[in-house]
């Protein structure tokens, strides 16, 4: 945890600034982790849909890196000190490492659906927490959510059956989601 800032943006108390910094620090870690996870999948995806998934992920990686940079710059603007080191990320994260290695593209997309769900849910909580604190930060988080939700839709388009069922609906872990997605894909004609 960073020290309390000595200043923040005009019109915001340092106490409110600290609350926002705490939210943003966690979002910074989540976005850094998401960037690394997307690259991991990009490098480890195999199978008949390899090139489609491999190429779909590059723009997502770039946009998530931009989100990370925006978040770090907002932290600095608010008088904080962004920490993007691997040690800080690992020490403060509340989730486990991505659990899938080299695997079929549909399996990775199943696991990635759960990753996006976690990031989006936590981003929405942070957005809601800024309602009475800082609408500028909230606006940034809303912009991030717009893209994160779009990216999850891209992923889910591969996981949805013609009848509208999402293969990862009952999964609680990335490995379960990967297995369920793979199983549904094998059952489709």
UniProtKB/TrEMBL annotation:
UniProt cross-references to PANTHER family, sorted A to Z: DNA PROTECTION DURING STARVATION PROTEIN, GENERAL STRESS PROTEIN 20U
This one is known as DNA starvation/stationary phase protection protein
- Entry similarity comment: Belongs to the Dps family.
Listed InterPro entries: DPS_DNA-bd, DPS_DNA-bd_CS, Ferritin-like, Ferritin-like_SF, Ferritin_DPS_dom
The record, for CDD domains, names:
DPS
Gene Ontology MF: a single term: oxidoreductase activity, acting on metal ions
Domain of life per record: Bacteria
Which spans does this entry mark as compositional bias, Low complexity?
A: 168-189
Q: Which residues form the Ferritin/DPS domain?
A: 22-161
Residue segments, region Disordered: 166-189
Q: Which organism is it from?
A: Streptomyces diacarni
């Amino acid at each position: 945890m960073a020290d309390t800032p000595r200043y923040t943006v005009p019109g915001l108390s340092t106490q409110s600034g600290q609350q926002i910094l705490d939210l943003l620090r966690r979002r910074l870690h989540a976005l850094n982790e998401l960037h690394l996870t997307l690259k991991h999948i990009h490098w480890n995806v195999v199978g008949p849909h390899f090139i489609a998934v491999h190429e779909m992920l590059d723009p997502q990686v770039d946009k998530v890196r931009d989100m990370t940079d925006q978040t770090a710059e907002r932290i600095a603007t608010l008088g904080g000190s962004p920490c993007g080191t691997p040690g800080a990320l690992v020490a403060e994260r509340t989730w486990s490492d991505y659990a899938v290695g080299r695997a079929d593209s549909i399996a990775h997309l199943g696991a990635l659906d759960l990753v996006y769900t976690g990031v989006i849910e936590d981003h929405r909580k942070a957005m809601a927490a800024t309602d009475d604190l800082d609408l500028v930060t909230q606006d940034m988080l809303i912009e991030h959510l717009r893209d994160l939700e779009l990216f999850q839709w891209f992923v889910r388009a591969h996981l949805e059956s013609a009848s509208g069922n999402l293969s990862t609906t009952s999964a609680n872990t990335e490995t379960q989601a990967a297995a369920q997605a793979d199983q549904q894909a094998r059952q489709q004609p």
